[in-house]
Amino acid sequence: MKKLLVALVILCSTTIHANNRTEQPTIITSDNIELKATQQNASAGCTLQKHVPVATGYASGIAPHDRFVTYYDPTDCGSPTYPFEIDALSFSFIPLTGNNWPVPVDVVVFAPNTDGVNCSAPGTELYRQSVLCDTADFAIPNIGTVFFDSAFCVDGPFYIGIEFTDPDTTVLSMPSLLFDTTSAPDSCDNWFYFDVNVDSLEGWYEWYDFWSPLPGYPWFWVEGETVSPNCVVDTDGDGIVDSLDNCPSVANPIQADADGDAVGDLCDNCPSDSNPAQTDTDGDGDGDVCDVCPTDHLNDLDGDGVCESVDNCPGIFNPSQADSDTDMVGDACENCCIFIRGNVNNDGAQMIDISDLVFLVDYMFGTPAGPQPPCIEEADVDASLGIDIADMVYLVDYMFGSPAGPAPLGC
Questions:
Q1: Which one of 11, 75, 211, 346 has the largest count of C-beta atoms within 10 Å of its C-beta?
Q2: What does each C-alpha distance from 399 to 254, 268, 342, 349, 407 come to in angstroms?
Q3: Which residues of 228-258 are buried (b: 16+ CB within 10 A; e: fewer)?
Q4: What is the distance of C-alpha 226 from the center of its chain?
């Protein structure tokens, strides 16, 4: 990328005072002299710049921690814009006798102020990168480019520029940044920062608070890329960024969504019924709007048409829900115990074995809980009229105790 500038240097007699600093302008006029950018193969998709090709520098007045920043709006690169990746900042200095080289600076990026006050100073600092600027790359007629060390992305306008970090306060210790002379910057586009350790007036100032009518815009080139892939996350690798993907955790490049609820079919817990909230009360993977038993994660295990949460005999088929003694335990689950208790899973062999213990543990402590024992009496191993940890202890002691514990009580 090549950028054109000027050739004739004229020292002006006018001095400009900025907070008791004497500024000596140096004017450069255009005559087709090529400025050679160090960025030979720009990969950025957009270059933001505001200056015009007639430049100005200052023979003195730069102090440690002075900052020069300018406002840029990435929408100038076109639409769609965001996320916008800032790749690099290019700029140049006017070298003068007495300057310290290389020049240490920080490239800085700030967010606009969000307090709602017109022409507030730049807001939160977003990015900072240190660089040593040598004469071979950063002194006219050359333009030096600082490439950002890592992907830095913004979702709106920003201020960008440099901060001089050389601690030397000697006059002319630092060269002048290059400005133009004839542009008319928009109100509050350009800001200058005085450091408290050097100046009595610490803080941000609009440039025209101190300089009028010069300078205009600084000679900054901001290299960036709109909708940069480096700024987005595509968790499932389907080519659709997470913020736009209707199923960000499962690859679905087609983005099929049969029920139109903005949740992709491959992620939708009710792909045929619109349910954008994806509510699943019982956590069984079926959304409430299509779940036959929205509060029963086993979905009517015994298949009698009554969900477990309201079934008076959830492990045994009893569609009538008959309960002769009105004790809320269905007749099919009462008087089901044969000989002795402990056949928790109610298998036909009437054996008491490890599977009964596993069934009881899953029912009491499973996440989610396992099914209710088909025969409550069988699971009430100690005949205490309830199922609790004591029944589990009783069964473990009977099966694995040394010596073995007592046999489960009779029905």
A1: 211
A2: 56, 45, 11, 17, 9
A3: beebbebebebebbeeebbbbeebbeeeebe
A4: 18
Residues 6+ apart with CB under 8 A from 157: 71, 72, 73, 74, 112
**pLDDT for res 292:** 84
CB 179 within 8 A of CB 92: no
pLDDT at 22 over 70: no
286-338: pLDDT as tens digits: 999 998 888 877 777 777 888 877 888 776 788 888 887 787 777 777 767 76
Q: What are 330-385's pLDDT values in tens digits? A: 777 776 776 778 888 877 777 888 888 898 898 888 888 788 787 777 888 887 87
Q: What is the DSSP string of 101-131?
A: SSEEEEEEEEPPP-S--TTPPP-SEEEEEEE
Determine the straight-line distance between the first and last CA of the chain, rounded to whole angstroms.
92
Distances from the Cα of 384 to the Cαs of 89, 357, 387, 388, in angstroms? 80, 18, 8, 9
Q: How many CB atoms lie within 10 A of CB 72?
A: 23
Please tell me the distance from the alpha carbon of residue 111 to that of residue 193, in angstroms, as a whole number.
15
Number of Cβ within a 10 Å radius of residue 279 = 13
Plot region of 114 (φ>0 → left; ψ -120 to 50 → alpha; else → beta): alpha
Structural domains in the chain plus CATH codes: 3-230 (no CATH), 233-291 (no CATH), 335-400 (1.10.1330.10)
Enclosing H/E stretch for 395:
helix 389-400
Q: Nearest Cα to 378, choosing from 402, 410, 407?
A: 410
Amino acid at 368: P
- Name every residue whose Cβ is closer than 8 Å to that of residue 240 and which is 6 or more positions away in sequence: 234, 248, 252, 253, 255
Residue 95 has a pLDDT of 84
Half-sphere exposure of 335 (CA within 13 A, CB side): 5
pLDDT band at 213 (very low <50, low <70, confident <90, very high): low
Contacts of 150 (CB under 8 A, 6+ apart): none
Residue 358 Cα distances to 105, 343, 371, 392, angstroms: 69, 11, 12, 10
DSSP state of 303: -
pTM of the model: 0.57
Instruction: Quote the pLDDT of residue 259.
Output: 95
Task: Report how far Cα 167 is from the mean position of its chain's Cα atoms.
Answer: 37
